[in-house]
Write a structure and sequence with these properties.
Helices cover 65% and strands 0% of the residues. The protein contains 14 helices and no strands. The protein is elongated, with a radius of gyration of 29 Å.
Length: 282
């Protein structure tokens, strides 16, 4: 090979300043000429070369978005928000599959005992459990990533809550469609579900993300147990009056949660770290 790239061209090539058509010639020549590649390495500033390798390593090590995360970003969701939603434990296939299996078993039981009571009693607890498992250091394995996200604690909580509610209520709705014989009665779980979830979130500001949902779930189960023991044909929460009470509780809980929103960003919220108070706004 009689021609080699000169030193000035190699330096310009390393800086990204070499223009076509000279650029094309040097680029093609470097593929086949080991001495010129060695000369290029010597002509390149060591610091610039190190930075280039660091950028390459970072690009190779960067996680690739999954299908769900990519779909969220295509819908206009910010990349960091999409990553947090995709990493939410209760939005993964394992949790959703478990919820679907539970709902399937309760639907089958409805046809066995000819009563939707078990389904109506269980369905409101699933969104509450999903929201409880979607955040906080005690239950969320992706908590550290959420902690450094450019979101306030309350906003992060609401983003994940909405996502979990959409998934949980959607699965509950599909299960309700499998009970066409009960008409609108098969949807009587919806208002209690919103009431339980809202109450659990409001109490979380004072009691923490483990105690609050556990207390609300226990109160719900106790209420149904007492009502069943008194021989009610239709459990009170699923009557007209019970639905009205559930709607009132849901609205009250939403108002209270809004009033307590700052507790999710300060050290006064149990089980929530003080670092939340210093998180920057997206």
């Amino acid at each position: 090979m009689g021609w080699h790239a000169d030193t000035d061209d190699l330096r310009a090539y390393a800086r990204g300043e070499l223009e076509a058509p000279r650029l094309w010639s040097v680029d093609t020549h470097l593929l086949a000429c080991a001495p010129c590649r060695l000369a290029l390495a010597e002509a390149t500033e060591p610091r610039a070369l190190d930075l280039g390798w660091e950028r390459l390593d970072a690009e190779l090590d960067a996680p690739r978005p999954g299908v769900f995360e990519a779909l969220l970003m295509r819908c206009g969701v910010a990349d960091h928000t999409a990553r947090l939603l995709a990493a939410t434990p209760v939005l993964r296939a394992s949790w959703l599959g478990a919820v679907l299996l539970v709902l399937l078993m309760t639907v089958v039981s409805v046809y066995t005992v000819h009563s939707p009571s078990l389904f109506l009693a269980l369905a409101p607890l699933l969104p509450l459990a999903g929201v409880a498992l979607s955040y906080g250091p005690a239950l969320d394995p992706t908590y550290e990533m959420a902690l450094v996200a450019p979101l306030h604690g309350f906003r992060l909580l609401m983003i994940r809550t909405v996502a979990v509610l959409v998934a949980s209520l959607g699965l509950n709705g599909l299960a309700s469609l499998a009970l066409p014989g009960y008409g609108l009665r098969a949807l009587a779980w919806l208002l209690p579900a919103l009431a339980l979830t809202g109450t659990g979130l409001a109490l979380t500001a004072r009691l923490g993300q483990v105690t609050a949902p556990a207390l609300v779930s226990g109160a719900w189960i106790a209420l149904l147990a007492v009502a069943a023991a008194t021989g009610h044909k239709t459990l009170p929460p699923f009557t007209g009056v019970g639905q009205g009470v559930a709607a009132l509780v849901a609205v009250t809980a939403a108002v209270l949660l809004h009033r307590l929103r700052d507790r999710f960003d300060t050290a006064s919220a149990p089980s929530l770290p003080t670092d939340l108070a210093h998180r920057s706004v997206a």
